[in-house]
Design a protein that fits this description.
- The protein is α+β, with helices and mostly antiparallel strands.
- It has five domains: about 130 residues, Agglutinin, subunit A (Orthogonal Prism), CATH 2.90.10.10; about 130 residues, Orthogonal Prism (Agglutinin, subunit A), CATH 2.90.10; about 130 residues, 3-Layer(bba) Sandwich (Hepatocyte Growth Factor); about 90 residues, Phosphorylase Kinase, domain 1 (2-Layer Sandwich); about 220 residues, Transferase(Phosphotransferase) domain 1 (Transferase(Phosphotransferase), domain 1, Orthogonal Bundle), CATH 1.10.510.
- The chain has 17 helices and 45 strands.
- An eight-stranded mixed β-sheet has the order 26-25-33-29-34-31-32-30, with helices on one face.
- A hairpin with a 4-residue loop joins strand 23 and strand 24.
- The termini are far apart.
- Bound molecules: 2-acetamido-2-deoxy-beta-D-glucopyranose (11 copies).
- One 2-acetamido-2-deoxy-beta-D-glucopyranose (NAG) binds next to loops.
């Protein structure tokens, strides 16, 4: 009995406590710190709408605490700003983050030592306050609403929408972002993104404040050329401002529910990321530089960048990681250190054995060598040995030696440009007894003849092994981000073209797996009579076109008459298999809408954002692929240019394409990007109905669905069009929008069709779409498509609505 009562009371105390502490939490949920208040322990402040939180956090498994700002609505703690990046505290319970008496924001540790200060202009007003805004900006205001200081002016590694990145011309202060040292340490790392110090209108990535390893390209009035797909203007608005006071770039998100940030990470890559609700993950819009080994000193001193290795970086022979902990985070720039220090010809050591050279074949030679004018490789080696600070030499078309740390070593492969053999200096004791070097051979020659034989055997062994390895590895040539495969590579990758994914008018597609186990789709082009050089030019243009809604070209092969393209593999398959196959799960409306929006964005990018407008010409559900998250990507763009003159012949004789072809293809009018709009419209009908446009109902007659559907749309009866399998589960507004857009897209005169950019805006709800007129030609379209040509254009049909009206209001 007694025990029971005690249990009850302790339970109620517990409940009381729980309630109380919840209550406390609730009371503490303010968006500001006013003078006299301070944050400590696990207290936080939350922005008004609840977008962001400010408080103490520990990154990863670190034991250190930092004051930072992170997203409240995202389950993965993503910190966008850190106050005390380099001065962590170890115990938050009596630390204080507060407004000091002179109106600055300060962080004190438990011994009241100042660890961080906003260093803002002193404000004597005791109503100075720090407020966390819903943009993620922490601002200090004095009594009135004057902003004295804001965290947006002092970014750490992230640039938020609305944040300016640039230079204040009056104070000369740059707003730049600097990487974290590693994922558990927000202290400034070596990589930074900032406005070009040379005052040109571009951004650069810098290592150690001096070495530029990437540039954005000069602002051209609309975008930075080198970051394709950086941002779609339909989603993100970039502004570049250059006035007397400031020069900066700012981006804003047009759809406020879209969460997006630009970040530079600990391995020197800059990326724009957006939060994808459906996967609960950050997804990249773009990541630069595309070739990871281009990051300056990615692997640090004496580290070797090797794209084929699963770890990207490794240490040279005779070296080990300077900081294993950092290497475990895949942050390598701390580099490698010698296992054994150099003897430097110190004959008093180790029986007169000095240093030797390790031959490293197929290396990209480091920058900035010292060139010596010596006659032979032996003299070059001698010169390096004589200089205690010399770490390596190479004798290519002259003698080059390197003193100090070797950076940017890269393992290259057959066919790469700039291949050289580097001789790396090591302490003699680091050489394995059985291995050999040129020097070793020379030393042993007079004494042991037999030794030569042994060494020759070893050498032959090594050559054989390296030949074999060379053959085993794929001969790749990296052109930007584009991989040049040999035909035998692709035979291996696709297991001799054994797994066919599909075939279209331009060739068959096979599945393959690259050495890094990423999956690819290999397309064998047919009917291509283009020269190799022209093919390469086209292919590299295509590779530069990158967008979340476009299937990315990863490589190519051109050998003899064979032309192959290697694309990223889309595990979700093609849209037609999802729409028309009975055994697949039914795509719900929300998903369909996302797919439609994705396709529209991809096409808008092709039409409007690329340097050269690209008309796809073959939009149909077979050419829309879905990734594992059902994100839609347009495939097969650029074929028109690759195939050339024969393209339209191939297209118009192709089965399965005909229903999507705009009248211009047949009537001989000029082909513009509006042909894609037409095909897109036709496809929308199929997405709405879940059926092919050409249906054969039970009675054997053929009906062409869009002509029937267009009438329903004009009558305002959208739900009768909706896929029956959805049971009417669709957002009426979205459905109306899609139906009307579809109808506008298939108007006969191309001028009446919207552009893809406008379609995107309509689908995003930025533009209103008016009631479409009934498309003329549709009336005439029955089962027999061969008649289209004869019957176009027709004036027999009388419009119910004024044709001159526009598609949006
Ligand atoms: C600061 O927070 C308190 C408590 O939530 C609120 O009442 C007050 O209006 C806030 N002050 C400002 C200037 O936002
Ligand atoms: C906050 O800290 C207090 C004291 O350390 C602790 O009792 C409480 O559970 C913590 N609250 C949360 C939400 O972690
Ligand atoms: C932090 O400080 C508080 C009070 O100063 C102390 O009670 C607590 O044990 C400390 N925590 C740690 C982990 O040192
Ligand atoms: C506060 O910071 C100072 C300076 O970094 C350090 O010497 C001191 O040990 C810290 N005090 C505590 C309790 O962590
Ligand atoms: C607020 O700060 C600004 C700039 O420091 C100053 O000009 C202004 O007088 C201050 N206002 C108040 C009420 O302290
Ligand atoms: C502080 O600012 C408030 C609001 O603007 C003003 O009323 C007050 O006089 C100021 N106090 C001082 C000491 O400047
Ligand atoms: C980084 O830059 C600083 C200052 O410019 C220079 O002193 C230092 O040697 C550089 N570090 C390396 C590893 O080159
Ligand atoms: C983009 O930003 C600029 C400047 O802030 C503004 O003038 C323009 O209207 C914006 N564009 C859109 C589509 O919101
Ligand atoms: C993502 O989910 C959040 C919360 O469920 C919601 O507020 C937001 O609008 C969603 N964003 C998008 C782009 O759908
Ligand atoms: C040579 O080695 C000896 C013994 O370790 C050392 O005292 C001396 O400084 C070394 N000389 C040079 C040039 O490194
Ligand atoms: C050394 O030679 C290389 C290639 O031969 C050349 O690019 C480089 O400019 C030369 N460096 C110096 C300092 O002369």
């Amino acid at each position: 009995m007694d025990a029971e009562i005690r249990l009850c009371s302790s339970l109620s105390i517990f409940l009381f406590f729980l309630f109380f502490s919840l209550n406390i939490q609730h009371c503490v949920a303010t968006d500001n710190i006013s003078s006299g208040q301070s944050l400590s322990g696990n207290q936080t402040i939350v922005s008004k709408e609840g977008n962001f939180v400010l408080g103490f956090f520990t990154p990863g498994n670190s034991r250190n605490y930092y004051v930072g700002i992170w997203y409240k609505k995202i389950p993965v703690q993503t910190v966008i700003w850190v106050a005390n990046r380099a001065t962590p505290i170890t115990n938050t319970s009596s630390a204080e983050f507060k407004i000091s008496e002179d109106g600055k924001l300060v962080l004190l540790n438990s011994s009241k030592i100042l660890l961080w200060s906003s260093n803002s202009t002193p404000s004597t007003n005791d109503s100075t306050i720090a407020v966390l805004l819903d943009t993620g900006n922490l601002v200090i205001r004095n009594g009135s609403s004057t902003t004295i200081w804001q965290s947006f002016d002092h970014p750490t590694d992230s640039v938020m929408p609305g944040e300016l990145l640039g230079v204040n011309k009056i104070t000369g202060e740059y707003q730049s972002v600097t990487s974290w040292k590693n994922p558990e340490n927000p202290a400034p790392g070596p990589f930074a993104l900032r406005m070009d110090p040379d005052e040109s209108n571009q951004f650069v990535l810098l290592w150690n404040g001096s070495e530029i390893y990437w540039t954005s390209g000069i602002w051209n009035g609309q975008y930075f050329p080198v970051s394709p797909g950086t941002v779609e203007s339909s989603l993100v608005n970039i502004t570049f401002v250059d006035n007397k006071q400031r020069k900066y770039v700012m981006y804003t998100i047009l759809d406020s529910s879209f969460i997006c940030r630009i970040t530079i990470d600990s391995s020197g890559l800059v990326g724009q990321w957006y939060w994808l609700n459906s996967t609960q993950k950050w997804q990249p819009f773009f990541i630069e530089p595309l070739a990871r080994c281009d990051v300056y000193s990615l692997c640090g001193a004496f580290g070797i960048c090797d794209l084929k290795s699963s770890n990207t970086c490794r240490c040279s022979y005779g070296f080990e990681p300077a900081s294993l902990k950092e290497w475990e985070f895949n942050v390598w720039n701390s580099g490698c250190v010698r296992k054994t220090s150099l003897r430097c010809r110190n004959k008093s050591l180790a029986g007169g054995e000095g240093d030797r050279f390790l031959e490293m074949a197929n290396m990209r030679l480091p920058d900035n060598p010292q060139n010596l004018t010596v006659g032979s490789a032996e003299d070059c080696e001698e010169a390096c040995l004589n200089d205690c600070s010399c770490n390596a030499y190479a004798y290519v078309s002259g003698c080059s030696i390197w003193t100090g740390d070797l950076r940017n070593l890269q393992q290259l492969y057959d066919g790469d440009r700039g291949v050289g053999t580097l001789h790396l200096r090591l302490a003699a004791s680091d050489f394995p007894a059985s291995s050999s070097s040129h020097k070793l051979v020379k030393d042993l020659t007079p004494s042991v003849i037999g030794g030569i034989l042994v060494i020759l055997c070893v050498l032959f062994g090594l050559i054989w092994v390296s030949q074999r390895r060379k053959r085993a590895r794929m001969a790749k040539q990296v052109e930007g981000s584009l991989i040049h495969f040999t035909y035998s590579d692709l035979q291996r990758v696709t297991k001799n073209f054994s797994e066919k994914l599909g075939g279209g008018g331009f060739g068959s597609v096979f599945k393959g797996t690259l050495i890094d186990s990423s999956e690819v789709a290999v397309k064998k082009l047919e009917g291509l009579r283009q020269g190799e050089k022209q093919f390469r030019t086209e292919v590299s243009t295509l590779a530069a076109i990158q967008h979340v809604n476009l299937v990315r070209l990863r490589g190519f092969c051109s050998k003899g008459s064979e032309r192959l393209l290697v694309y990223e593999y889309m595990s979700g398959g093609s849209l037609d298999s999802h729409l028309f196959q009975n055994n697949s799960t039914v795509l719900d409306w929300k998903m369909r809408y996302q797919i439609i929006l994705g396709i529209a964005r991809g096409l808008a990018y092709l039409h409007e954002k690329c340097r050269e407008c690209i008309i796809h010409c073959d939009i149909k559900p077979d050419n829309i692929l879905l990734d594992k998250d059902f994100c839609a990507k347009v495939a097969d763009f650029g074929m028109a240019k690759l195939i050339g003159r024969d393209f339209s012949r191939v297209l118009t004789t192709m089965r399965g394409t005909i229903g999507y072809l705009a009248p211009e293809w047949i009537s001989g009018l000029p082909i513009t990007s509006k042909v894609d709009v037409y095909s897109f419209g036709m496809m929308l009908f199929e997405l709405i109905s879940g059926n092919r446009n050409t249906m054969q109902p039970e009675d054997g007659s053929k009906i062409f669905y869009p002509s029937w559907a267009a009438k329903r749309i004009i009558e305002g009866d959208m739900f009768s069009l909706l896929d029956r399998r959805l049971n009417g589960a669709a957002d009426i507004e979205e459905l109306t929008r899609v139906c009307r857009v579809a109808c506008w897209c298939i108007q006969d005169p191309e001028g009446h069709r919207p552009t893809m950019g406008q379609v995107v805006q309509i689908l995003e709800g930025v533009l209103e779409v008016s009631m479409p007129p009934l498309p003329k030609a549709l009336q005439l379209l029955t089962g027999d498509h061969s008649q289209i040509g004869n019957q176009l254009p027709s004036t027999e049909y009388k419009d119910p609505l004024d044709q001159s009206q526009d598609f949006y209001q």
